[in-house]
Specification:
23% strand, 463 residues, Purple Acid Phosphatase, chain A, domain 2, 6-stranded mixed beta sheet, alpha/beta, 3 domains, 9 helices, OB fold (Dihydrolipoamide Acetyltransferase, E2P)
Length: 463
């Protein structure tokens, strides 16, 4: 080859001059200039970019997924809260709750159901009645007396002590179906049923092979936030074969640690400005691969009202790459219907039902499904009396996702997959006082096509 002096100088500066030389040999020009060398370099660069893109398409499978996300609008309270906390608001709220759960019972074709105003007409007959549990007390003879009410009035039911162990335990504010015999305007209770979820076939028919990652309780701003583990998880999403198949991420609240949530919290904060806590989270979120669609709801540590249902986060705190919704909310991902709820009410569930504890969140979640309500016991967990009760579980989801308890747990209950997604916050002094033992740094991922759930344990890789 014959090259001009400036062409030779440029060629000698290139680290891949051998490859460029081989390309230049294919030229039929009698004399090669600097421009010819530049064209060869440009051609090789384009080839390299195209090759990287081909490998990317092959490896990053989730990037090719046609995303299908639907926030079920009627389940999202954002922008719709009109309650003023008046007596009329409370009446509307409880009437709506009772009406919806009563309809769940009636759709099963239950016969012989009466109301409190009809009890006196059914003496010595077997009846059923759908009712709120108003009060529970023990008689001097050891029987249990249940005072109940419906939309027409109040009544009394008695569980004789011999039958007490044969019937499920009920709590004040439960909406139940009681069956028994009317004697002297009282019902001798023989059976108690919860509205519960139905047992159905879970035929999702998902064609795409992808994963959904579930997170909650990230608690950015806390000294106990496991930033190193969180960054490893992001790295895992981009480098592992399964990570490249994660197409969606659902965050069930407590994105940041907030301010003034529990006693002496300021001693455990590394970022004491809540706006800066969200800024830090948004910077972390930018590292998450752009092909992963993120849906996030607030929790009791986030910058929204504490009372449920909680509207979505304020726009000033939001990253534009994330879909923000209310707590709770129904979300459909492809054909997989999710009920996403932070889970604050599970504290009151654990306090009221003896068999439950913080070590097994899935059992708490199961009790919520049985009662078809996300906060069934009024008073312990703050609830806004909207005219519509957004906390009734009217539709049975395929996946029920919660957080709050900082403990990973998974369970299938009547073909509904229950996921409590743990935390990215190490154990705090306050949790030590309460006896909470979290399972931090573990992320569940679910493949709806294969109906498989797995865990990503960031502590297995982070020293």
């Amino acid at each position: 080859m014959r090259l001009t002096k400036d062409a030779i100088n440029l060629l000698q500066q290139m680290p891949n001059k051998e490859t460029i030389t081989e390309l230049l040999k294919k030229s039929n020009k009698p004399f090669l200039t600097k421009d010819d060398v530049m064209e060869a370099i440009k051609f090789l660069s384009i080839q390299k970019i195209e090759k990287v893109q081909e490998e990317k398409i092959e490896s990053y499978y989730a990037e090719n997924i046609s995303h299908k996300i639907e926030i079920i609008e009627e389940s999202d309270v954002s922008g719709k809260s009109r309650s003023r906390g008046t007596v009329e608001d409370f009446i509307s709220y409880f009437n709506d709750r009772f009406s919806k759960i009563k309809n769940i019972f009636l759709k099963r074709g239950i016969s012989d159901v009466i109301t409190t105003k009809d009890i006196k007409n059914y003496d010595r007959k077997d009846v059923g009645i759908i009712c709120f549990v108003y009060d529970i007390r023990q008689s001097s003879k050891g029987n249990t007396i249940i005072e109940f009410e419906d939309e027409y009035g109040t009544g009394l039911g008695i569980i004789v002590k011999e039958n007490l162990d044969k019937l499920p335990s009920v709590i004040q504010d439960d909406i139940i179906l009681i069956k028994g015999r009317v004697i002297n305007d009282m019902i001798i209770i023989k059976e108690i049923e919860f509205p519960d979820i139905s047992l159905y076939e879970n035929n999702l028919n998902i064609e795409e092979d992808f994963y959904i990652a579930y997170l909650s309780d990230i608690h950015v701003g806390s000294k106990k936030f496991l930033e190193k583990n969180f960054n490893y998880f992001i790295e895992w999403l981009t480098k592992s074969e399964e990570g490249k198949k994660v197409a969606y991420m659902v965050i069930a609240g407590d994105i940041v640690d907030g301010i003034g949530i529990y006693p002496k919290q300021e001693d455990e904060l590394i970022i004491k400005d809540i706006d800066k806590q969200y800024e830090t989270f948004n910077e972390l979120a930018k590292k998450i691969p752009e092909w992963i669609k993120i849906i996030a709801i607030p929790g009791n540590h986030d910058a929204v009202r504490r009372a449920e249902p909680q509207p979505s986060l304020n726009k000033k705190h939001c990253s534009s790459s994330i879909i923000y919704a209310s707590n709770p909310v129904y979300v459909k991902i492809h054909s997989v219907l999710h009920l996403v709820y932070h889970g604050t009410s599970m504290d009151s569930i654990i306090a009221k039902i003896p068999k439950l504890n913080y070590d097994n969140p899935a059992l708490c979640m199961q009790e919520l499904l049985k009662r078809r309500h996300l906060s069934p016991f009024y008073g312990d967990n703050l609830v806004v009396p909207e005219k519509k009760d957004y906390l009734v579980i009217e539709t049975v989801p395929h996946v029920f996702h919660t957080g709050h308890l900082h403990k990973n747990a998974y369970k299938k209950y009547r073909n509904c997959l229950l996921i409590n997604s743990g935390t990215f916050q190490d154990r705090t002094d306050y949790q030590i006082q309460l006896g909470h033992v979290p399972t931090p740094g573990i992320v569940p991922i679910f493949n709806p096509k294969r109906n498989v759930i797995k865990e990503v344990n960031t502590f297995a890789k982070v020293s």
